[in-house]
Amino acid sequence: MKILIIEDEPEIRGLIKKFLLDENYIVEEAETYTSAQDKIVTYEYDCILLDIMLPDGNGLWLLQELKNLGKADSVIIISAKDSLDDKVKGLDHGADDYLTKPFHLAELNARIKSVIRRRSRNDSHLYELENVKVNIQDRAVLVNDEPVSMNRKEFDILIFLLMNKNRIASKSAIAENIWGDYIDQANDFDFIYSQIKNLRKKLRDSHAGIDITVVYGMGYKLIVK
Amino acid sequence: MKLINHTLLLLSAILFVLISSWAFLFYFQLLKQVKTIIDEGLADYKIVIIDKLKDDPQIIEKDVFEENNYIIKPIDEDFALQVRDTYKDTLIFSTLKNETYQTRLLTTAFSASNGTYFLMKLISHEIDKPKLIQKIVTSLFWLYLLLFTSTIVVNNFVLKRTWAPFYQLLNYLNEFRLDKGAVPKPTKTKIQEFLLLNDSVRNLVETNVAIFNNQKQFIENVSHELQTPMAIGINKLELLASDENLSGDQIQKIGEIIETFRRLSGLNKSLLLFSRIENRQYISVEQIHFDKIFRQIIDDFSDYTEYQNIQIEYHKDDDWVVKMNKDLAGILVMNMVKNAIIHNRHGGKVLIKMFSSSFTIENTSIEPVKLEEKLFERFARKSKDNNSNGLGLAIVGAISEVSGLNLSYSFDNGKHVFEVNEKF
Questions:
Q1: Sheet (strand A132-135) strand order
Q2: Which CATH architecture has domain B286-422?
């Protein structure tokens, strides 16, 4: 999987790169509009992370350029502008998703996986880890080929943690991902504990090969037993 | 008061004073003229009578005005020579009419052909002053009415034509919204003052639109500049936390720092939102169904309230449909519900009532009565609760303000009650 990071801020670019390399992606960088333009013309990417505020051009023009080139690379806009106008504009121009800075790396990870999954044609809506099979499209979970019933939130948390397996997912990252924008300013995220508790119980009861551990003071981590 | 009515009123008042004083002068002028004419008539009459009586050897003394309107009495020569013709106003009692009336009286003396002298007093016909005044007043009233109506017509015609560019400009200014930033279309006029006014307004608008855009850009830039280092901080710490060599205690500390960064970022977002609302950057309006928004937000908070053991009750009397910005409506409800939840006590209640043109949100609380006048100000909170950044209710206040909604607070029976209704 090849990812292009178009971002003028070197520190953010470096951080995202390091994170994505850990996730075993092939990562390329572009720090200006011009260099980004060169790269998208020459290569194909599975996902492009695009900062729309670039020193020498508007990132939205790159979306137009991709369209003109007839390329179907997935694009996630990462912007410091938390403006609905820009979000709507970006999505209208063909971006797949819009992420506002600052974001959790776990969230970025989940979004990248999700846009790549949506773009690919094969059975990528099936996710398998140890003896757990998850069908994202049908929202079904199978452990040892036995169905395990889960409510909407438990399922969403499981997906989010699966995409970030072996990584710490902070409580706020989980809350923002599952409960959305409304909750993101609440500071007490302990309320997600009850959902996690149920999810853990279901995984354990069905003898799943994965488990959710508590990282005290940070959040949760999905690990292979 | 409309300009047209103002000028009309002013003109009518001036006309009234002018016509009244003119009526006064006119009356005396007319009266003088009438008297002159009457006096001339009396003089002629006197000659006729004297001519008639002069040669009459037997002039009969008359001391009552009868049908001939004169009295005659003999006088001695000395007295007669002193008498000059005098005209004066006098009141006569008419036995016929049984009333006194005003006439002109001519006093004169003459000598008969036999050498005797006579004093003669002649009276004219009645001078009906009240009637005269009445006539003058009625005709002047009609004149005034005529002038008044013509003033209205002229005003409507002339003023409306003359002030047309002004009204166009006024209309434009009334509809002008800084956030829309339109520049006035120059109205066609040859009047120098209006041309100048148009130019001034255009300059003013252009400058303000430029400043507004500048400021908007500045706020967004500040937010951008602040979000980036915060993003760097959060993401660096997240990468650091994934280091296998860290102890649980160290990871916990990193978690606390991430939390602080997140709070900072939330505050920054709220401040940005606040400035955007106050700068009226949320322009588009649509039909908002508050019922739908409440149901959505109560559902969003359901896990949180369940965890806090707070019960949310929702009573719908009627759906309130109002025209406002969709995002602002969502933020308004979210902040109010959140306020009712986080300032609640464990096991408390939130009661939401929806009516056809208002809603109320009541919540139990451990906190005492809030300072009402400072409630909707920024950072006016007293609690040191980390859940509150001190901007929630200020944002609610700002949204109500720009959306034409009325927001009020009361403390009733140990409950904090917030009400939002339409401003009339």
A1: A126-129, A132-135, A140-143, A146-148
A2: 2-Layer Sandwich (3.30)
